[in-house]
């Protein structure tokens, strides 16, 4: 974190070049005209006082808040460096209380097929992985990250979820276009080239979907297959989550093989709950679930 005295001597042009999201801070408080040749301290001291008062700030507070903003954004960027290489499932009990005598390591870059009849416990296993269960779920299973018990802060982190789950039913309720939805996600991830990312996600989603859609299509008008295709492309290309759980992908109306290839290309650990024997054979490993275990 930069000290105030260091920031005070920085020219705004240097700050904007080093932190590509810095301009957003000023825009958020109504400052659109920035003199790149002035230092932050001089700039903060000469800003129209009425403008600062509208934002509930003075010059000193502006610098303090800007510093906190930079620090928070850099922390979010560094969080993506918490690399997950594997998860380990340590067995618990099935529906009848019988012990699951298993310890299974799953690695990033693998596709794991989870098969079994309806009600066998496939979704329960996905839920255990998603919440990084620590003997505190009905199955009494334990999930390790990189061979170790996950930190509690990491387990319950909202900002940096380790697991992205794509459920059977994907219906949007947000009143946004596809373009605005992806831009919102990209900007929250501090992506440098937002427009390029939007184009790539829409392109990939249309390659997966049976029926194409445009960037201007409202989310609420997407079909189930289009919604699932969009979320898979978004998860692969934009989400920081290293683990992807997909429930019943055969019912999604998308190109399943391409979807899996896309996720693997982005170095994800992919777990698929399925009834489809052909899809199950596409996995590197197959877990057969019966009676919840």
Description:
This protein has a five-stranded parallel β-sheet with strand order 5-6-7-3-8, sandwiched between helices. The chain is elongated, with a radius of gyration of 23 Å. The protein is an alpha/beta fold. The model has no long low-confidence stretch (mean pLDDT 82). Helices cover 42% and strands 13% of the residues. It has two domains: 4-79, no CATH class; 86-288, Rossmann fold (3-Layer(aba) Sandwich).
Note the topology:
Elements: H1 4-9, H2 12-18, H3 22-28, H4 40-46, H5 49-54, H6 59-79, E1 86-90, E2 103-107, E3 111-115, H7 122-130, E4 142-145, H8 152-155, E5 163-166, H9 178-188, H10 194-208, H11 224-237, E6 243-247, H12 256-265, E7 269-274, H13 277-281, E8 285-288
Parallel strand pairs: 3-7, 3-8, 5-6, 6-7
Antiparallel strand pairs: 1-2, 1-4
CATH architectural group of the largest domain: 3-Layer(aba) Sandwich
Question: How many H/I helices?
Answer: 13
Provide the low-confidence segments as ranges. none
* Rg over alpha carbons: 23 Å
| CATH homologous superfamily designation of the largest domain | P-loop containing nucleotide triphosphate hydrolases
In total, the number of strands is 8
Question: Helix and strand succession?
Answer: HHHHHHEEEHEHEHHHEHEHE
Helix content estimate: 40-55%
What is the total domain count? 2
In angstroms, what separates the terminal alpha carbons?
A: 48 Å
Give a short account of the largest sheet. Answer: 5 strands, parallel
CATH class of the largest domain: Alpha Beta
Question: Averaged pLDDT, please?
Answer: 82
- What strand order characterises the main sheet? 5-6-7-3-8
Label the overall shape: elongated
CATH topology-level name of the largest domain: Rossmann fold
Range of strand content = 5-15%
Query: What is the structural class?
Result: alpha/beta
GO molecular function: ATP binding; ATP hydrolysis activity
Protein name: ABC transporter
Keywords: ATP-binding, Nucleotide-binding, Transport
InterPro entries: AAA+_ATPase, ABC_transporter-like_ATP-bd, ABC_transporter-like_CS, P-loop_NTPase
């Amino acid at each position: 974190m930069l000290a105030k005295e260091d920031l005070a001597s920085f020219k705004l042009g240097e700050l904007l070049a080093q932190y590509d999201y810095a301009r957003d801070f000023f825009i958020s408080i109504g400052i659109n005209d920035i003199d790149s040749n002035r230092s932050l301290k001089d700039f903060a001291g000469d800003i129209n006082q009425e403008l600062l008062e509208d934002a509930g700030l003075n010059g000193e507070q502006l610098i303090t808040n800007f510093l906190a903003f930079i620090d928070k954004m850099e922390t979010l960027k560094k969080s993506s460096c918490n690399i997950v290489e594997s998860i380990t499932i340590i067995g618990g009990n099935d529906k009848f209380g019988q012990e699951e005598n298993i310890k299974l390591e799953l690695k990033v870059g693998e596709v794991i097929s989870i098969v079994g009849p309806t009600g066998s416990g496939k979704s329960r296993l996905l839920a255990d992985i998603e919440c990084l269960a620590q003997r505190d779920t009905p199955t009494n299973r334990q999930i390790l990250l990189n061979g170790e018990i996950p930190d509690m802060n990491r387990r319950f982190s909202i900002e940096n979820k380790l697991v992205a789950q794509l459920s059977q039913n994907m219906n949007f309720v947000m009143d946004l276009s596809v373009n605005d939805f992806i831009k919102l996600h990209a900007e929250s991830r501090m992506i440098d080239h937002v427009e390029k990312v939007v184009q790539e996600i829409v392109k990939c989603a249309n390659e997966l979907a049976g029926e194409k859609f445009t960037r201007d299509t409202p989310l609420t008008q997407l079909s189930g297959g289009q919604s699932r295709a969009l979320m898979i492309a978004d998860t692969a290309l934009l989400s920081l989550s290293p683990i992807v759980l997909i429930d019943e992908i055969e019912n999604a109306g998308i190109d399943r093989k391409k979807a899996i290839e896309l996720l693997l290309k982005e170095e994800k650990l992919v777990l698929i709950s399925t009834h489809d024997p052909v899809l199950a054979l596409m996995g590197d490993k197959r877990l057969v679930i019966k009676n919840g275990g």
